[in-house]
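ok here's Phosphoribosyltransferase, seq below lol
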Amino acid sequence: MADEREILTYDLFGTAVRDIAQQVVASGYEPDMVLAIARGGLGLAMGLGYALDVKNLSAVNVEFYTGVDQRLDVPIMLPPTPAAVDLSGLKVLITDDVADSGRTLEIVQEFCAGHVLEARTAVVYEKPWSVVKPDYVWRRTDRWINFPWSTEPPLVNRSHVRDA
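and the structure came out like this:
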């Protein structure tokens, strides 16, 4: 039982994007920008951008997970980051694949605070222990999630570049 995992396929991901977009529409929120947390939130941001007719997409790179169940003590934002002036007065929809600890969403919300008119969050999955409760969620689970883009190992090993 402990080995059970949540399995997300590309087909289910498409369903998740449309369901989340419908939640956003039903709530009346009309974002001016979709801000993806790279890498996990990029696909969701692209899909929501199309579904919500938002062309203003941007990304922030936050490093937290270094492997399966391995993470840094605190998430860190890596450059380049959007200039705060570019976010000024906008309604922003922040996207990520999962709110596990919620710390990644939290650091991006803090980055946006005081600059944006309003920020809301959208994730494919939410874990019950997340410190941030996303505004839009497709599914809630306490299991490890196999995402279609990270289930298979990379085709190349770039760790030698990072370690140099």
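fwiw The first helix runs from residue 10 to 27. kinda neat tbh
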